[in-house]
Amino acid sequence: MEPGSFTKPPKTWRNWLIGNPLQTADAPNQTIGKLIGLAVFASDALSSTAYATQEILMILAYAGASALTYVFPISLAIVTLMVIVSISYEQTIHAYPGGGGAYIVARDNLGELPAQTAGAALLTDYILTVAVSISSGVAQITSAFPVLFPFRVEIAVGMVLFVMLINLRGVKESGTAFAIPTYFFVITMFITVGVGFFKYLTGTLGTVVNPPAFETAGLLTAVTPFLLLHAFSSGTSALTGIEAISNGITAFKEPRSKNAGITLIWMSSILATLFLGISFLVSPIHAVPSESETVISQLARTVFDGQGPLYLALISGTAVILIMAANTAFADFPRLSALHAGDGFLPRQMTFRGSRLVYSRGIITLAAVSSMLIIIFQASVTRLIPLYAIGVFLSFSLSQAGMALRWWKSGHLKDGEQIVEPGSIVTHDEKWLGKLFINGFGSLCTFVVMVVFGITKFKDGAWIIIILIPVLVTIFFSIHHHYKNLAKKLSLQNYHSTTIKRHRVIVLIAGVHRGSLAALSYARTLSEDVTSVHVSTDPVESKKVKEKWELYGEGTRLVILDSPYRLLVEPVMDYISKLLEMRQPNEIVTVVVPQFVPKHWWENFLHNQTALMLRMGFIFKPGLVIIEVPYQV
Amino acid sequence: MEPGSFTKPPKTWRNWLIGNPLQTADAPNQTIGKLIGLAVFASDALSSTAYATQEILMILAYAGASALTYVFPISLAIVTLMVIVSISYEQTIHAYPGGGGAYIVARDNLGELPAQTAGAALLTDYILTVAVSISSGVAQITSAFPVLFPFRVEIAVGMVLFVMLINLRGVKESGTAFAIPTYFFVITMFITVGVGFFKYLTGTLGTVVNPPAFETAGLLTAVTPFLLLHAFSSGTSALTGIEAISNGITAFKEPRSKNAGITLIWMSSILATLFLGISFLVSPIHAVPSESETVISQLARTVFDGQGPLYLALISGTAVILIMAANTAFADFPRLSALHAGDGFLPRQMTFRGSRLVYSRGIITLAAVSSMLIIIFQASVTRLIPLYAIGVFLSFSLSQAGMALRWWKSGHLKDGEQIVEPGSIVTHDEKWLGKLFINGFGSLCTFVVMVVFGITKFKDGAWIIIILIPVLVTIFFSIHHHYKNLAKKLSLQNYHSTTIKRHRVIVLIAGVHRGSLAALSYARTLSEDVTSVHVSTDPVESKKVKEKWELYGEGTRLVILDSPYRLLVEPVMDYISKLLEMRQPNEIVTVVVPQFVPKHWWENFLHNQTALMLRMGFIFKPGLVIIEVPYQV
C-alpha cells in the first residue's frame, strides 16, 4: 500500500442526512464566532425569561395579591446571584481555556468524587433540559392547535430526533440553523420590554384587559421568610443554562477564552435586562399568575393593546426558543461526556468523533435517553419540571467551591510560582481574596437554593434525581476501576517475552466432507500436533466417519467421543478441559471448528452453532483459542 | 481418555423440572401399551363428541326446529365416513409400521409436493388443535368462574406451558399423567348415553326442562341439499384427531402395528358409539342448539333429572378432555416435524432428541407458536375455529389418495414381486380393487368436505390457512434446497486434497501492551509470515506505537494505516481486501485480533468490538480466517 493512500468512508444515505465526512485536520475550521456562539449556547438560558417571572409570582400568590409586589426585589436578588455566577464563570473561562465546566474545575481543585458528582449532575440536567424544553415547546404548540394534543409524545420525540440530526451535521451548521430564531426571540422580547417601559414612563401603560382569574390555593399564608426564599428559589430557574458556555469553550474560534468570555457577558446582560424588565412591568399592569394564560402573554397583550402581529411574533418566538433550548444541551452533553470518557469514567467510545467531527455517540445517547424520558413522562412539563434544576445548582455550587479553593491556592503562591494542573495553570493573583469571597458566596447561595429546591420539590419527583446522581457516580467509578485495572494488567512493566513451545490443535469433525477437510488442511498449517475429534451419538454414523477418515484424514489421529446422552458440545468441553489441565506453561491449545457460511443469513438457523456454544462455554479459559474456519457454500 | 468414559449432563434445575436424562439405549423402554396409547392419542378425537352434534344442529336450525330431526341421518353419514377413514388408516398402520401418517403415505405414493402439502396441513392443524382445545377448555372454566375471564389468555398460555413440560418429561410419563382424566371422560360419557338409552327404551326419558331459547338467524331457509351438506361438513369436526395414531406408531410397544391398529379400532368404536348415541338422543329430548347452554349439558340434565353429581362429573370431564386434546397434538407434532427434518425439509435440529428422548425442539416450537396464536386471538374459540379442520381434511384426502395409488400399484404386481419404498414395501394384494375403492371414495368425500369447509368459512378466517399452507410448503422446499445444495458442495466426489502453500498472518494492533503481544506470540506460532497492522487516527499516538514496536515487536513488520476520517474497521478491511485480491490459490490469510476477556459481561460495552465487525464485514470472503486471541484480564 503506497503511503498517503487511505480509506474514505463509502457514500451512503448518511451523507445525505448529515453531510459529507470531514477529515480530522478540518477540526479548526469547525469552530464558531461570538454571534453564532450566542445562538448555540444561550438559547437555554434566554428561554428561561419565558417562565422565570411567572414561577416567582406563582409562589407569592400563596400570600395573596398584595404579596405579588415582592416580585421585583426578589428578581433583583436573583439578578445579583446571576451576576455573581456570571463573574465566576467569566473568571473560569479565562482560567480554563481548554474548557472549564464544573467537571474540570471540580476535578482539578476538589478531587475525583466531587468532579464525578458535578459531571453526573450536569449530564442528568442536560437530559432533562432536552425533555423539559421540547415538551414545553410542544405544549405551546398544542395550546394553539388542541387537535395535535393526542400526538404530543410523537411530536416531541420527532423534534428531539430533528435536533439530533441537525447536531450530527456539526456545530457550525447547527449554529447557523438556530441563530435566526434565537435572535428573533431576543429582538421581539426587547421590543416588548422597551415599548412597555416607554408607555410606563409616558403614563400610557394600562392594566391587563380581561385578566385570568386570580387563583388562590386554599387559605392565604403570611409573607414569611420561607415563602420569600421559596419564591426566590423558584425564580432561580432563570440561571439554568448560564454554565453552558464554560463547557463549550473549544467550540469557539481563537482566541477562544476571549470570545467565550465576551459571549457569556452578552448572554448574562441580555438575560438580566429582559428578566428584570419583565419582573418590573408585571406589577404596574397587574399581571396575574395563572395556568390558563402565561404572564408573558398578559404583558404582551397589554403593551401592544391586544393580540396584533407583534403579540403573535413574541408568542411564536417564545415557543420556538423553548424548543431550541434543547440545542444547548446537545452542544454541551456530548463534550462533557467525552471529557468523562477521556478520563476513563464513561465508555471510551464516547471520545470518538463521528464523520462530521462531532461526538456523535454522545449526541445519539442524549437523544435516546431524553426521548425515553419524554415517553415515560408522556411529555408532561408539570411532571418533568420537579426533576429539573437540582443538578444545575449542585454543579454551580461545586464549581464555585472549586474556584474558591483555586483562589486560596493562588493567594498562597509566591509571585512567579505556579501549579500545573491537568486543566489549567495556577499562578499568583493579587485580588485572590476578593475573588475567593465572590466564588465562596456564590457557592453558598447556589447550595442553599439547591437545598430549598430539593426539600420543596422532593415529593414531586426531585427524589428521583437525589437517588440517581449517586447511582451514576457509582457507575462512573466502576467503569474507571475497569479501565485502571485493565491498564495495569496490560502494562509492559516487568514484561518478559515468552515463546510458545507446544501448540496442540484439535479439529472438530461432525462428518467427513469438504468443509471438515478444509478445516483439517488449515489446522495442519498451524502445527504438527493435530488431533481430530468426533462426537458420536449414533454408532452406525461414527463407524462411517472412522472409515472415511482413514481415506481422507491425511494420517491425523481421530478421537471418537461417545455421547450416550446425545450431548454435542459438552463431551468436547470435557475433552478440552482435560487437555488444558495437563497443559504445560508455554503450551497453547487451539480448537478448529469448521463453519459453513451460507448464502443467506436465515440459513444459519439450519445448522448447529457449535463454535458459538464452545466459545460461550470457554470464555474464561486461559491458553485456549477457538477458530472458526469458514467454508463458503 | 479411557474408552467407555463419557460425558454425563450436569445436574441442573432442568432435572427437577423434566426428569433425569435418559441414554439413547433406553429408547425401547420409553414406548407405551394400548391403554396408555389410547389416552395419549385419542383425547383429541374423543373430545370432539363434546361439540360435533351441536355443530350439526346449529346449521340445521337455519331451516327451523323441524329440520333438527335430520341430525341423526347426517350423523350416520358422518359415522360412515369415519368408518371409511378408520379402515383406511388401519390398513395404513399395517402397511407402514415405521409410522404412516399422511406425510409418509403421500411421500411414497404421490411425490414430494403432495407430501409436503399434507405435512404442512397437519403441522398447522396440530398448532390449531392446541390453541383451539386449550382455549375452549379455558372457556369452560371461565363460564364457571367469570372472575377469571380477564386472565383467560394468561391461563391458556400457562396451560400450554404445563402440557409442554409434561411432554418434555417423555411420552411414557405424559401418557400416565393424562390416562386418568381421559378414561374418566369416556366412562361418564358412556354412563350418560347408556342411561339415556335405558330411559328411552323404558319410555321414562323426558324432554329438556327450561330449554334455552331457540334462536333463528333471520328468515328460515328451506332444507336444501346445500344446507344438509353444510351441516354434514360442520359435523365432520368429529373426525379431527382420527389420524393421530398413524403418525405415532413408533411410540407403541412391539408389535407396534398390531398395538396401534387395535388402539385405532377402539378409539373409532368409542367415538362412533358416543357420537351416534348423542345424535340419536337429542331429538327425543327436544334439545335446542344454543350459545348459552351446550347440547351436552341439556342432554345430561335431562338424563340425570337435574344438575346432580353425575351431571357435574360429565361437565367437568368435558372441560378436562378439551384441554387434554392438546396433548395429542404434543404427541404428534414433534414426531411429524422430525420426519420433515429427517428428509431435509425442516431444520435438522428438529430430529435431535432431548435429554428425555423426546423431540424437545418440536415440543417447544409447538408450545411457542400455539401460545402466540392464543395471544393474537385472545383465546377466542369463535375466532380460532374457522382456521381449524381444513388442514386435517386436506391431509386425509391426500393420504387416502396415496393409499388408493398404492393399491393400484399392488394390484399390478405379480405374486412374489415387491416395490421397496422408503416407508414400506409394496406387495401384491388379492383384494386391491375393493381397498382402492374404499380409499378412493374416502379421499373424494374428505376432499369435498374440505372444499365445503373452505367456501363456507372462507371469510371467517379459513383464508389464512389457504394462504398459509402454500407459504409453508415454499419454506419447506427452500430449506430442502439449502440442504441438497450443501450436500452437493460438501460431497467428496472428485475431491483432491490441496495443501496450503503460503499462510500470511496479520495481527491487528490498537496499542502495544500485554494483550497485543500475547496475540503476536500466538501469531508467530502459526506462520513465519507475520505482519502487524495499526490504524492511525492520531499521529502522536501512532508515533508512540511505532517506537514501542521497535522494542517489543520481535522484529515483525509494522504497517501503519492512516485514517484521516477516524474510521477503524474500514482501513483494515481495505488492506485485507487488497491482500486477498493478490492471493495465489493455495494461499490463505489469517487475521489475528487481540480480544480482552473482561471479568463481567457488561465490561464488553467499554471496548470496541473490532473482531466482531471484521467478521461481519468479511463473512463472504473465501481464503480468510479471523481469529480472536483472548487475553484474560
Automatic annotation (TrEMBL), chains A, B:
Membrane topology value: Multi-pass membrane protein
InterPro entries: AA/rel_permease1, APC_K+_Transporter
Main subcellular location: membrane
Pfam families: AA_permease_2
Keyword Transmembrane in annotation: yes
Molecular function via GO: transmembrane transporter activity
Listed transmembrane segments: 56-85, 120-141, 147-166, 178-198, 218-242, 263-288, 308-330, 358-379, 385-405, 436-455, 461-479
Gene Ontology cellular component terms for the protein in this record: membrane
Cellular localization per UniProt: Membrane
Secreted recorded as keyword: no
Gene3D superfamilies for the chain: Amino acid/polyamine transporter I
Annotated keywords: Membrane, Transmembrane, Transmembrane helix
Protein name as catalogued: Permease
Source organism of the structure: Leptolinea tardivitalis
